[in-house]
Write a structure and sequence with these properties.
Elements lengths: L1 E3 L5 H11 L10 E3 L5 H11 L4 E5 L3 E3 L3 H10 L7 E7 L9 E2 L4 H9 L16 E3 L1 E2 L3 E5 H6 L12 H11 L4 E11 L9 H18 L2 H24 L3 H15 L2
């Protein structure tokens, strides 16, 4: 277990769990980072230390329902190499479906996400009720083989949080790997359990998109992305001023600064 400088007594609870289950020989290796190193780097630490063939990446703000891990593993092991990455069906705290997979973020998809409420209409992310081959699944729950992750050199540690799983699965796609959303295994994902409020995710998504496009796409595509991000930020600032909303103003002023970065 990688603890990214948590402040909620996580380590104490894990130690209690080890003592409580000592008769079952519960083996838990704990790595305590002094600082929050980000999603990708912390996962890379765990992947490197893991000694098993299969790796389950599971967020700290998830609740496993009805033997979901066992169900996910069984489906993965019986897949006959049809796919190399699999994710379960994520639910919100009230048990409603949580959109957790989708197509890669092409420029049209980013436009739909920023200006057309793409998530709301299921254009940019969705929660299928049937098994579905998808471009990406949420990093909150990903099961794969350690060998696949090693071939990809793990997560890109330059991405602190958000877009890291999309970058990973984009590189996997380039190697011919496939990804499956399996709705037979349910996990509650509380959301924002590893981030700070609403501003932080927006800023990280802006940063992640900028980095992802600079890494994988042409200079022209990067310029078009920058224009869209600036426009989105300006709209947020204008709406904030119209409705006297300090949150919108401050958040999208920061986002605009990120959009301007090279």
């Amino acid at each position: 277990m990688i603890d990214n400088a948590s402040k909620d007594k996580t380590i104490d609870e894990i130690q209690k769990l080890k003592v409580k289950n000592q008769n079952y020989k519960l083996k838990v290796k704990i790595v305590q980072n002094k600082n929050n190193l980000g999603y990708g780097k912390a996962n890379n630490q765990g992947i490197e230390l893991a000694q098993s063939e299969n790796i389950l990446l599971l967020n700290s703000d998830t609740i496993v329902l009805d033997n979901a891990i066992e169900k996910l593993l069984e489906r993965f092991q019986n897949n006959k190499n049809q796919f190399q990455f699999i994710g379960g069906k994520l639910l919100n705290q009230d048990n409603t479906p949580q959109a957790s997979c989708g197509p890669f973020y092409s420029l049209p998809m980013i436009f739909a996400h920023l200006f057309l409420r793409g998530d709301y209409w299921g254009l940019t992310r969705s929660s299928p009720n049937q098994e579905k081959s998808v471009d990406w699944i949420s990093g909150a729950c990903i099961l794969t083989k350690k060998s696949f992750l090693e071939k990809l050199n793990g997560f890109d540690e330059n991405i602190f949080m958000y877009m890291d799983e999309i970058d990973l699965l984009y590189r996997a796609h380039q190697l011919g790997y496939k990804t499956l959303l399996y709705p037979g295994a349910y996990f509650i994902h509380l959301g924002s359990g590893s981030s700070n409020g609403k501003t932080f995710p927006i800023i990280q998504v802006f940063k992640g998109l900028k980095y992802f496009y600079k890494k994988h796409h042409s200079p022209l595509s990067c310029k078009i992305l920058t224009i869209m991000l600036k426009l989105k930020a300006l709209i947020g600032i204008i709406l904030g001023k119209l409705f006297n909303n300090r949150y919108l103003i401050e958040t999208y002023e920061k986002a605009y600064q990120v959009a301007q970065m090279d």
